[in-house]
């Protein structure tokens, strides 16, 4: 009896390349358009169909974690608590911070007016009080301009930083980069508390400094990218979408519960600063837990392999620059200087748009994958733009149509978030169990209950159809916003869009399945760049559309949103399963020699034997 660990593929043909064995594909597969979607969701294929197998790579992380004690084994459950705490602080600060900014800007506005007109008497502006004089148009205008500066600064800086942190995490691990990304929140909340506690000493414009530190450390975008990368490292492909859905559920749960808890805390303590102190404590707790308790998801072996691959890519770029200079004999001699080439290389790496190269891998063998990545990048950008840009405008639209007050608006947001959490925590795992877990267990039973090794074979048919399903329900719900004129049907349309929450988790999982392990952070970082850009421009676009059409046709922004979702559905029809990045997709990398392989093997063995005392 053959006692070797079976793989999820047939006709495996491993070859040494410094990583887990790679299953080669038949030459005929490169000319096919992919598996036909008339088959079952998982497109199960027998051993006799070996010539139609797609290119697969064993999911090697299972070997890295096998046999480790539980306190050293990374899993999504290590992140659920800290991530929920972070999103709770993030959601709880939305309303209190806006109210605090209104008060500080209003206080500064009337202080300036008092200086210009000493004979006129103005009511004092009390922090945490009911300052009716702050509802004037000039104050609201200044508040809008100031909040735009804060969001644009944080979003713009995070667009540059988040991809860099994602790429660095591939080489140096997720933990320390998560701590760095969370540290900006501590600085931001500290400056906010000081500005509110000592308004006569610290000008409200110091909040810009807080947004700077928040953005330069990646802000919420980087935390999301690194968290998703951590989960992708330690979760097999069959469960990855569900695990990422857990983090999405934490986000919606924090956005739903955070504002309610912040409001209750303010009432109980009679202090507007109480939520800010709690938020600061959440950030500190998050950092301490991640640093001292959460195990690293990337083994030393994988980090070293990623570092060596990165160095090889940089060396290849230097060679390309050298050859480009040598091919131009008329160029001045100083241009051929090695120092100048080094600076040119640094400038190329500093290009804020450079991370987007992850969506366009080179090589003819990656042509279909290139199309997949571009289509999924477009779809995910539409999803995040709808969340960041249209969410606030939708609440304003509901207030305009149904005369909602703060209570009704808060209840509406809580209902949407609650149903999204239910979909991600209940519906999604059930679907995954029926169409993925049960077939895998059945196959394991056929293999004599031996441990089944999953393969890295790209997104499957279930991923593709879940994406289309989620986008369809999102579109139906958004179209409901256009046509309904009653509160009940409006809320029902919002519940319909709750199934759209599957799209984000599914597409993040699909992206991580289609690239090699050492590129997961870079790919999600590139996606984070699009998220950060959407965070800046989407509110401006949708706010502008709503402001310009509210008197003639207030549903215009919803029509635009529905059109974008319609294009997303159309794009999803061209997304194909079972595509994986070719290893030379981004740069020509030299083969690793035997010394490197021996060193990586030694590192792996050392890592397994170290740290026998549990973490506290």
From TrEMBL:
<feature type="region of interest" description="Disordered">
    <location>
        <begin position="591"/>
        <end position="616"/>
    </location>
</feature>
<dbReference type="Pfam" id="PF07690">
    <property type="entry name" value="MFS_1"/>
</dbReference>
<dbReference type="GO" id="GO:0022857">
    <property type="term" value="F:transmembrane transporter activity"/>
</dbReference>
<dbReference type="InterPro" id="IPR020846">
    <property type="entry name" value="MFS_dom"/>
</dbReference>
<feature type="region of interest" description="Disordered">
    <location>
        <begin position="27"/>
        <end position="59"/>
    </location>
</feature>
<feature type="transmembrane region" description="Helical">
    <location>
        <begin position="204"/>
        <end position="231"/>
    </location>
</feature>
<feature type="transmembrane region" description="Helical">
    <location>
        <begin position="143"/>
        <end position="165"/>
    </location>
</feature>
<feature type="compositionally biased region" description="Polar residues">
    <location>
        <begin position="1"/>
        <end position="12"/>
    </location>
</feature>
<feature type="transmembrane region" description="Helical">
    <location>
        <begin position="177"/>
        <end position="198"/>
    </location>
</feature>
<keyword id="KW-0812">Transmembrane</keyword>
<dbReference type="InterPro" id="IPR036259">
    <property type="entry name" value="MFS_trans_sf"/>
</dbReference>
<feature type="transmembrane region" description="Helical">
    <location>
        <begin position="465"/>
        <end position="484"/>
    </location>
</feature>
<feature type="transmembrane region" description="Helical">
    <location>
        <begin position="412"/>
        <end position="435"/>
    </location>
</feature>
<feature type="compositionally biased region" description="Polar residues">
    <location>
        <begin position="37"/>
        <end position="49"/>
    </location>
</feature>
<feature type="domain" description="Major facilitator superfamily (MFS) profile">
    <location>
        <begin position="85"/>
        <end position="580"/>
    </location>
</feature>
<feature type="region of interest" description="Disordered">
    <location>
        <begin position="1"/>
        <end position="20"/>
    </location>
</feature>
<feature type="transmembrane region" description="Helical">
    <location>
        <begin position="274"/>
        <end position="294"/>
    </location>
</feature>
<feature type="transmembrane region" description="Helical">
    <location>
        <begin position="554"/>
        <end position="575"/>
    </location>
</feature>
<keyword id="KW-1133">Transmembrane helix</keyword>
<feature type="transmembrane region" description="Helical">
    <location>
        <begin position="490"/>
        <end position="511"/>
    </location>
</feature>
<feature type="transmembrane region" description="Helical">
    <location>
        <begin position="243"/>
        <end position="262"/>
    </location>
</feature>
<feature type="transmembrane region" description="Helical">
    <location>
        <begin position="373"/>
        <end position="400"/>
    </location>
</feature>
<keyword id="KW-0472">Membrane</keyword>
<feature type="transmembrane region" description="Helical">
    <location>
        <begin position="523"/>
        <end position="542"/>
    </location>
</feature>
<protein>
    <recommendedName>
        <fullName>Major facilitator superfamily (MFS) profile domain-containing protein</fullName>
    </recommendedName>
</protein>
<feature type="transmembrane region" description="Helical">
    <location>
        <begin position="76"/>
        <end position="95"/>
    </location>
</feature>
<dbReference type="GO" id="GO:0016020">
    <property type="term" value="C:membrane"/>
</dbReference>
<dbReference type="InterPro" id="IPR011701">
    <property type="entry name" value="MFS"/>
</dbReference>
